[in-house]
Write a structure and sequence with these properties.
Layout: E1 3-14, H1 16-19, H2 27-34, E2 42-51, E3 54-58, H3 77-81, E4 83-86, H4 93-99, E5 107-111, H5 117-120, E6 130-133, H6 135-141, H7 143-148, E7 163-164, E8 179-180, E9 187-191, E10 200-206, E11 209-215, H8 221-225, H9 236-252, E12 255-259, H10 265-271
Parallel strand pairs: 3-5, 5-6, 6-7, 11-12
Antiparallel strand pairs: 1-2, 1-4, 2-3, 8-9, 9-10, 10-11
Length: 283
């Protein structure tokens, strides 16, 4: 019954210094704004998991409304200077699910790794689903203070009232806390702070292999194994600790690592290509 689908909801380009940060402290974010180099076009993945308990969606991708004039706040320098999105209506998560035989209204649960727009932009497709998000993520994303931090709470659906994830002291590999989503324990949420303080990831255990739906813990698998922190994370130290936990997990359990914006994530999922971690990597 367990099956994972990669759903690409359009593409995004960001500054090179967002994918791999440059400088120290606050200057890492400033450098993003003034960087003249852009990444190639990167995928925006959402994930559909068919389980014994029903369909679970991890992240909702982006909305085509980002093409509309005024959708992003013009006063915010990040949206004005540092991101370029390309999403059409048929690329949104709802139409994409229909193509693989899943009706959005039949989705049982939506798990948000965090609330940045390219992960929460497709929320409007799931008014009947239970939405899970971490309490710290929701707190930091709310209101005008959230908008200053780069969230778009004014674009959330009016019905948006997520259930907060309660982590239990149940260890899963290198993670000392977890939240089991399915009754058989195959889908588990773990805290992975770094890109945002309330960021979470989802581990899907399928026999001897784990699939690590990583959100933005890193932008690529290469950044994980090389311990290269992105330019958005407010704390390099916290991000590194999370990356090292993932490495420890992958060292002890064959793991397919699936970040949202890694162009190779789809191929790794399709072919169950596990991450190879050198013993030299600090963990």
């Amino acid at each position: 019954m367990l099956k994972i689908h990669a759903i690409q909801t359009g593409n995004v380009r960001v500054k090179a210094s967002q994918r791999v940060g440059r400088g120290r402290g606050f200057m890492r974010r400033v450098n993003i704004l003034f960087d003249r180099s852009w990444t190639e076009s990167l995928p925006i993945y959402a994930w559909a998991i068919e389980t014994v308990d029903g369909v679970i969606i991890v992240d909702t991708g982006e909305t085509a409304r980002t093409r509309e004039p005024g959708y992003f706040p013009r006063w915010h320098p990040y949206f004005r200077l540092a991101v370029r999105l390309d999403v059409t209506p048929e690329q949104e998560v709802g139409p994409q699910l229909l193509k693989i035989g899943i009706r959005p209204e039949d989705v049982r649960t939506v798990i948000l790794t965090h609330l940045h727009t390219d992960h929460a932009g497709g929320l409007h497709h799931f008014p009947n689903s239970e939405i899970l998000v971490s309490d710290e993520e929701l707190r930091l994303a709310k209101g005008f203070a959230g908008r200053l931090r780069g969230y778009l709470p004014n674009r959330w659906p009016q019905w948006f009232a997520p259930r907060l994830i309660v982590f239990e002291p149940k260890a899963l590999g290198a993670f000392d806390r977890s939240h089991h989503v399915t009754s058989d324990g195959t889908v588990v949420i773990v805290p992975t702070p770094g890109h945002t303080p309330g960021h979470v990831s989802v581990i899907v255990v399928d026999g001897d292999i784990s699939y690590f739906l990583a959100g933005d813990t890193t932008y690529t698998q290469q950044s994980l194994v090389e311990e290269r922190v992105d330019g958005v994370s407010p704390s390099e130290a916290v991000s590194l600790q999370t990356m090292q936990r993932i490495v420890r997990y992958a060292r002890n359990q064959p793991t397919v690592y699936l970040p949202t914006h890694d162009p190779e994530s789809g191929d790794r999922l399709a072919n169950a290509i596990t991450v190879r971690v050198s013993e030299d990597v600090v963990a």
